[in-house]
Amino acid sequence: MLDDDAQPSAQIDQVFEVKTYDIEGVSVQVREFAFSVTNSGTVWKSSFPLCKYIMQHEAQFRGKRIIELGSGTGIVSIFLKKQGFDITSSDIADDEVTENIQHNYRLNGVEVPHVPHLWGTDFPPELNNFDVVIASDIILYVNHYDELLVTLKQLMMKHPDQSLCVMTYKRKASNQNGFFALLNQQGFEHEVVGSKIWKFYPKRRPLMTWAADHQGPLLSTHPFAGPEAGGHGSGPGIIAHLRSTPKEAAEIDLVVTASEMAVGSPDDFIAEGSRCWTSNRPYSWYCVDFGPDRKVIPSHYSMTYGSRGGTCSPRFWIFQASDGFNPDRKYGTSGGDTPGQDPDWQTLAVHNNDTSLGPGLRPFTWKVTSRQAYRYLRVVQIGPNAFEPTAAEDVWSQVFVVNGFEVYGALLRAPFVDVPHMPPIAAPPVYSNSEAAAPRTQSAIIRASPEVSKELHEALAHLVRRESDPPEKVRVVDIGLSGD
Questions:
Q1: How far apart are alpha carbons 270 and 286 in whole angstroms?
Q2: Whole-number pLDDT of residue 35
Q3: Sequence-separated (6 or more) residues with CB below 8 Å from residue 241
Q4: What is the pLDDT of residue 274?
Q5: Does residue 357 contact residue 365 with C-beta atoms inside 8 Å?
Q6: Mean pLDDT in residue range 8-18
Q7: Which residues contact 12 (CB under 8 A, 6 or more apart)?
Q8: Has residue 452 got a pLDDT over 80?
Q9: CA gap 50, 79 in Å, rounded
Q10: At 179, is the secondary structure helix, strand, or coil?
Q11: Distance, CA of 215 to CA of 373 (rounded, Å)
Q12: Which of 19, 123, 182, 305 could form a disulfide with 358 if both were Cys (CB 3.0 to 4.6 A apart)?
């Protein structure tokens, strides 16, 4: 029988049935045909593990522009649309296939853009703006591998360092290994991410090299390859490299500034082993200026706490970068922004009760996520250190004691390229170690700095809520120059 919305065609004259599927708790109805010349009129079992994988790894897909190849009945696209994903469907340019998929969209009350497309032909350039390609059971068609690779390259090579494809299968192809061999020949690499689930993407160039190519000439790279305990890397970092390299007559040296010093000078911040700390004031900071002719794309940074005891070791601070800022901006009680909300600075890491530093003069290294080149790097203390003040006197809890700073990544030189639309970075990692030591509560912050308790609370809340899945501290070998 035919329903009221059916349009007469050769395919629809066939026997069909409207079925209801429960996919990850979501009800989806589709019209399926007993016979379909194009194999697009029925639901294939690999659709369900594809939906499940996407929901289990939602962060990889949420907010991304997704296109499904070989959508068939549209069941996967319908499910994703109902879950709020940005999804576009695509299948062979066939009127009967397009009519059935549009019918199923109406049946489920969803609107999904659909692109009829024959593999191997030009994909409409005005529509080619996707981040993720998904597909289920499409490598059965062995005779069309070459055409499929043409389409995949059109969709994925436009943004090779960001795009990916996830594919599932239940129907085993007779020459699936040949498909993956072709993938490799055409500049892709793949990995198995589940039972009969593959993820593949264009072969990645090292992130630092790729980012440098878009912003300025690359002087050198300084990967972090440190010990498991998180000390300094085995090779020199950028600061050590610059301090040990003979300078040309016109070359400007590194410039280090600080909020207000109590002991030592700002230069001691990058001279490991020196004695220096700031005055006992909220939002104390240290800043390194690499000069007008140099920029850094940081992958890791390290600091050393400058005391054999852990009395005043930092606990709450942020690591930030900038390409130009207002040096007169005030924070806190004067009514200005908190450091984490300063529009001139990009927060690359948040440390919330991080007990990695001190005691013992041991450096520690953390990973950051950045593709942007910066002239300035700074650390800002946004909460009390480990000092436990008495009720009557607090002369140490806001002192920022750091005796050694290093950064790893890529070093660029002028002339620089203005890049207004660099790929977005992930939310800054939040490093904490509340299991190793009892967390400093907001009441402790208020007691230590009653005059700025509101600003400290807002700074921590603003930064921490931006990260939904905090990574652990870097304690494994990580060269930092490749990866997503």
A1: 10
A2: 64
A3: 220, 222, 411
A4: 77
A5: no
A6: 60
A7: 2, 6, 33, 96, 99, 100
A8: no
A9: 11
A10: helix
A11: 7
A12: 305
